Amino acid sequence: MNEGTVSVRALAAGDRLAWERLYRGYAAFYEVPMNDAVLDATWRWLMGRERRVEGLVAVRRGELVGLAHYRSFSEPLLGKDVGFLDDLFVPPAHRGLGIGRLLIDAVAAIARQRGWPVLRWITAQDNAVARHLYDQLAQATAWVTYDLDVAAR
Question: What angle do CA 138, 148, 82 make, to 5 degrees?
Fold first, then answer.
């Protein structure tokens, strides 16, 4: 999986510090507070034997310049597992190089290998730059997403 000097590979244990920089950038983009406990839990999910979440990284000239976290989930209406792209991030300095597309294509290839008929993801409605790419690759749905704060309920 390669485009020019950018390649995509599985996230590896030695990527922790570079991954953390990227993931903090992702959280900051969405204005979500980040702390060491969240980073540690997410890293355990990514590196654990059960691989609750899996990760890919884009590499350019030896530097991690993008990340994608994905997982399977059961889709009862299809009676099958499908894929979910949880997180996709490319730092501003590396945008416009096709890195986001490479990462999505890499996850889509994994989805095909695993027999997932759908790869799903969400983004903020005002994320115009990402949505421009997403509109080229996938079909926006009519579904509206809700988050219930169960502690406040």
Answer: 35
Its pTM surpasses 0.90? yes
**CB burial class (10 A; 0-12, 13-18, 19+) of residue 102?**
buried
Cβ atoms of residues 86 and 53 within 8 Å: yes
Average pLDDT over the chain reads 95
Question: Tokens 């000097």 belong to which residue?
Answer: 5
- Sorted by where each starts, the structural domains of the chain and their CATH numbers stand as 2-122 (3.40.630.30)
Closest alpha carbon to 66 in 34, 105, 41, 94: 94
- Beta strands at 80-89 and 119-120: parallel, antiparallel or unpaired: parallel
Q: Which amino acid is located at 30 in the chain?
A: Y
